[in-house]
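re: that complex we talked abt at group meeting.

here r the seqs, copy pasted straight from the sheet so there may be weird spacing, ignore it
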Amino acid sequence: MKKLSVVGIIFLLVVITLSLSFQIRADEDPIKIGAVNPLGDITGRQSTNAMELAVKELNEAGGLLGRPVELIVIDSELRPEKGASAIERLATSDEVDFFVGGMASSVHLAQIPTLKRYEKITVWIGAASHAIEEAVGPDEDWYFHLHPWDYQQGASYAYGWKDIEEKHPEVQIDSLFLAYEEGAFGTDSYESYQEYFESAQEGEGPYADLMEDFSGVSFVSAAHGGGDYRAMLRQAMNYDPDLFIWAGYDADAVPMLSQVREIGFSPPIYAGSPPGWPEDFGDSPLAENVVFFGMWAKSLNEVSPVAQHFWDEYIAMHDDEPVTYFAPLGYTNIHFLAKGVENAGTLEKEAVIESLREIEYDSPVGTTLKISPSRIISNQGFSEQKIIQWQDGVQEIIWPFDVATSEIIYPYEW
Amino acid sequence: MKKIIFYLFFVIMAATLPYYAGGYLLHVSTTILIFMSLSLSWDMMLRTGQLSFGNAGFFGLGAYASLISVSNLDIHPVLSLFFAAVFAAGVALVVGFAVLRLRKIYFAITTLALALVFEVIVMNLSDLTGGSSGRVLPQAIFGGNSVLIYWLILFITIIVILISELLNKSKTHYAINSIRNDEITARSSGINVFKYLVFVFVFTSAIQGIIGGVYTQQYAFVMPESTFSLDFLLLPIAMALVGGIYTTMGPILGAIFLGLISEYLKLIMPYGHLFIYGLIIVIVILFLPEGIYKVARKKYRNRKSQEVKLDASSEGK
Amino acid sequence: MKINQKKTSWLFAILFFIVIIVGIWDASALIYGLQRGSLYALIALPLAMVLGIMDILNLAHGELLTVGLYASYVLFINFSIDPLISTLPVFIFLVILGGIIYFLTIKKVLGEGHLPQLLLTFGISIMLIELIKIYWTTRPRNVYRAYASSSITIGNFRIGSYEFLYVFLAFAVFLLLKLFLKKTRLGQAVYAVGQNPRGAEIVGINVDLVYLFIFCLSSGILGLTAGVMLPRVSIFPLTGNPFSLISFALVAMAGMGSINGILLAGITLGIAEAVIQAIPGYGGWSDLVFFGVLIAVIMAKNIQEA
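got the structure back, here u go
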């Protein structure tokens, strides 16, 4: 009896949660889309904003199948178990029809066992690690993944470089140096380049004539307390590559460039593949002629009406510019799904899956989205990225040529 | 007797949770139980006076041991938890002989450094561990059945709670308490301090290993950055401190309180909920520095009787 | 605060050995290590002061540095004040912020033992990080200053010159602090409080004031460091976070209360890290070496017979 008060507290807490989980939603009418995004992070915040924009557009156009669309967003907090809880909540308490999201491979890996239990149609825009594909497996036809896998990205750059070499004879790439951050993101890049290099030595694969020689050195990303790249950069300088690529985070961009100047390193092409760029990066003289791989840039507005439309509407709704490609991807995510439902004319799962596989969606990332199989899963979306260059503070698309907004400036000089 | 009935009531309520709670509450409860066990295991080490920051390290080792034993040796996932426990305990035994000679902040920092060393080693043994991109299992334990997973974790947690109670009731309890309060006196009164420390360090590490294993089996993957995340260190510590240290009830209440609060806050404010979470932690420590449980217990006893009140203040220290 | 000479001899021996080896093999690694290590020491010093004198375990240490960086950034963006000049206003700002934090929170957990402090400062650190996230998002920010990538060339040996500022500042702050502790009345009071707070109170020292002073000064030093760091780093909500860990490592390695030890420990770990990073193909092990050296030194210095 001594612990009666304690017992009382626990009981109260249990009751509170129970009432939370039993929250009954009176309105059963709308088609519900459940999103799990890291709302504390710029990528998650902007892609959520873009998803809201897309839902608003759908509802203004009369909804889907005559029903309104509702978006329910839960923060993943970038923690695996929280991301999985969010899926459970969306599935059981909110009873959503579809799952969409989200960033971070570790969070998404933890969600997969839960997603597999519910087998609802899931369209995912982030999480590029090939481990995801292994975890999903070949038999899950309800799973759609839009972001190019890590290994696909590497291959698409090779096609780009070859095209560029052909068009601009002065560009000559034979040796490649990869600076990669020590975490999963960078190491995955390194491993896929290593694979490409091995097949290139046998004269096979996308890098067959590009990589006669390859080397890579790791660094600790500024995002993880590092930020001194000089040891790595000196090794790169001694190696003297035709193409220098760094695979790190946006926090690495400026400090690395500043140390590149300190060291006196000037490769003919200086390329990177961060998920975004720092605030006001374009205004910095360091940005000039830096090349990067990405899915989207503001300059796409010049060549793609969809991109322009997205840009204008996003700013009108949120009074903020989209700065990460996860914004147009979030927008794509919802519209792609909605189009699938619309074409199927029903929410019936098999029909929607079938119609999603058929869609050709002209997306604001400048490319047409069309589902095709990847190494393991059958429903992979984009497989290509773009080669983009900072020119006069603007991100200009260099490749693919059909959406190009400028020609490459070569060689990189400062 | 009534006490036992109360406990039984709660065990039954917890065990039958899957029948009356939805999938969401079940998952949140599973997560709370995981952190509860980690929190209790950290608190048990703390009862010897040693502030350990090694939790996340042994959690991670257990996670990898469990995944690798399932995937490479093809043993049953439940069996792999024993493997995780034995592996974490083994490593704890070896490093324990060295680091348990340290005290205070030196012990704390060294255990934290060890956890980070484990992570670096795991990351660099990529043939076995998958390196920094990690490894996945083809499916979660019990085919991903969330009810069975919950029961398994509940079972483990109940055992951890019993161990914790046992530790606070048995003869070992007196030895451990005297080590914490005054190590030199404890030693001079014939207690083999080092033996006790190694004992507690090894079995709390084993618990962390099991929990790491079960977490990995639940989500079917390991990845150094998330498996060795400092969340598995800091959150259990926060739970134990918010609930009240040196008790069994404290970490239990702390885990439930913080676990539910964080989910609840997220639902009512999607942006910035973590700020309120931090604020709650600060407020709890400023106004209830001894933790929820001890304050609640004191209030209750104050009302009850003089005799019990004396007991509380001597235990509350 | 004990200024312990004997125990630092261990560090001296290790440092000396490494310096000889590396100097022969790769001088640039030595210089990078010295620069990086000085920065570590500069950031760890305030933590060591707070821990050594006030016995406060401050998990929000790195976040104070982050706040300093954002303060300096705001001054640059809005008023075009060069980060190096803004060190002074940021110093003052952080002294005030430190004072506020001290009065509102830290003061209430003095002498409560390390655990409540640990949780309190953990909560503060979450709050600071989340506040920054809400206002500035997680997107990194930078300040471009051409001088941050300056270098000097000796023969065909080119070395970055900006980060020598870290070395200079570290030595200057350490020297000033030691002078202050030895030569001024307040400094001696600080010294006395660090040795024995109760004794100090009996002889009439206002211990509370000393604590306030130490907490403010240590926050201020972080502000100073932030201004000097800003042109070289990216700032985002978690910029300072990893430095808490590095600082704890340094304090543990140096031994509680050793000021000289912090500088030496910083430079030792900095060089150890830089050396590994300079070995082709083994850069990934630099963390292991960092923590390996740390554990080895702590073990060697602190083992008790059991």
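couple things i noticed - Residues 22-27 of chain A have pLDDT under 50 and may be disordered. The CA atoms of residues 39 and 392 of chain A lie 32 Å apart.
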